[in-house]
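User: tRNA threonylcarbamoyladenosine dehydratase. Structure?
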Amino acid sequence: MTEFLTRSALLLGDEAMERMQALRVAVIGLGGVGCAAAEALCRAGVGHLLLVDHDTVDITNLNRQIFYTHRHVGMNKVDVAAERLRDINPEAEIAALSCFYLPESSAAVFDFAPDCVVDAIDTVTAKLHLAVSCQERGVRLLMALGTGNRLDPSLLRVGDIAETSGSGCPLARVMRKELKRRGVLHQKVVYSTEVARKVLASSENGRHSPGSISFVPPVAGYLLAAELVRDVLAESRLE
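Assistant: Predicted structure:
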């Protein structure tokens, strides 16, 4: 076992750490949520990680996306992320896929043979396709819902998609309806019960990016990582 994981082994035990080292996880979306989830999984000892994102680092990412600094602006997110995680655990397999998750690119994700997938994607169509694809293949999926325009990380919750009813999250409402239409009746999600705040800035066309803060999206990512590890260990009767 890699020496830096000795404290984790004191908590989980050697057998659980061996399970973590064998685990294959794809993290799709390397924004505020995905960065935190990927790093937490790497530091927990997950031995095989696939990082998926199409984007380059923008200066506006730096307020919440923990992998990136000013020197990374303009670089591919997956390259920056992979370098950081390899520096944390040089013995891990860290694969990088620079693309949108779309139906036509999904095969590359599943060619990695993930045991689990973390969905930190923003777009509804991609989230729906991923959920259906994971259900068809029997791959465990943990999904993040909206974290933008929120200020209170203590109002983040983990539950089934059905439990998001009444949360006031517009993304949750759409996902409940569309997942049910596609036959995905149960899906574990991280969601917020906080009413989304209004953006204070205005724009010419009335459209704007959601507001964000340094401590809400990463907490959602850590919750995703925690649930994934606990679920896998419970399933293996190692928790």
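Residues 41 and 229 are 8 Å apart (CA to CA). Strands lie at 24-28, 48-52, 93-97, 116-119, 140-144, 156-160, 188-192.
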